[in-house]
TrEMBL record:
SUPFAM superfamilies: N5-CAIR mutase (phosphoribosylaminoimidazole carboxylase, PurE). Keywords: Isomerase, Lyase, Purine biosynthesis. Residues 6-157 form the PurE domain. PANTHER family: PHOSPHORIBOSYLAMINOIMIDAZOLE CARBOXYLASE, PHOSPHORIBOSYLAMINOIMIDAZOLE CARBOXYLASE CATALYTIC SUBUNIT. It comes from Rhizobium setariae. The keyword Metal-binding does not apply. GO terms for biological process: 'de novo' IMP biosynthetic process. This is N5-carboxyaminoimidazole ribonucleotide mutase. Pathway: Purine metabolism; IMP biosynthesis via de novo pathway; 5-amino-1-(5-phospho-D-ribosyl)imidazole-4-carboxylate from 5-amino-1-(5-phospho-D-ribosyl)imidazole (N5-CAIR route): step 2/2.
């Protein structure tokens, strides 16, 4: 039987990454985009990674958001094994504040792209928004929801600062 997955997979290297990656999930929720979130460690569960990445497209996923910290090989290794777009989120590490995660994810050799976002929450939110923008190319109702989300964001920014 063919498994039908939601359009977005959010994968992360550890339970400890969920606090960051939940921001991607919350953003997808706000845009009514279905997703599946999974813990897949490039280092601790390599077989799980191979199985996931090699089958992701056939199972129906369209976009992968991959978050990891430290020696963050997960996004790059996933991208090596799937033609789906992979957006990488560097999780803020304790030792090096996420600089290690960022450099591990962003410096992919030519030929295997990972769209790399900012460290931490901003990167997770923006990965979800990029996923939404890609899916909206072929989904007019989602395009409308994304337009509304952006309009609401603009409307929420006060024009003048106030003393607090
Ligand atoms: C990475 O190591 C994970 O993505 C996580 O950010 C980091 C620490 O993992 P844990 O020791 O919390 O499992 O692989």
């Amino acid at each position: 039987m063919q498994i039908s997955r939601p359009p977005v997979a959010i994968i992360m290297g550890s339970q400890s990454d969920w606090e960051t990656m939940k921001n991607a999930a919350d953003t997808l929720d706000a845009l009514e985009i279905a997703y599946e979130a999974r813990i897949i460690s490039a280092h601790r569960t390599p077989d799980r990674l191979v199985s996931f990445a090699k089958n992701a497209r056939d199972e129906g996923f369209k976009i992968i958001i991959a978050g990891a910290g430290g020696a963050a090989h997960l996004p790059g290794m996933a991208a090596a094994m799937t033609p789906l777009p992979v957006f990488g989120v560097p999780v803020q590490s304790k030792a090096l504040s996420g600089q290690d995660s960022l450099l591990s994810i962003v410096q992919m050799p030519a030929g295997i792209p990972v769209g790399t976002l900012a460290i931490g929450r901003a990167g997770a939110v923006n990965a979800a928004l990029l996923a939404a923008a890609v899916l909206a190319l072929t989904d007019e109702e989602l395009a409308d929801r994304l337009d509304t989300w952006r309009e609401q964001q603009s409307a929420s920014v006060a024009e003048y600062p106030v003393d607090k």
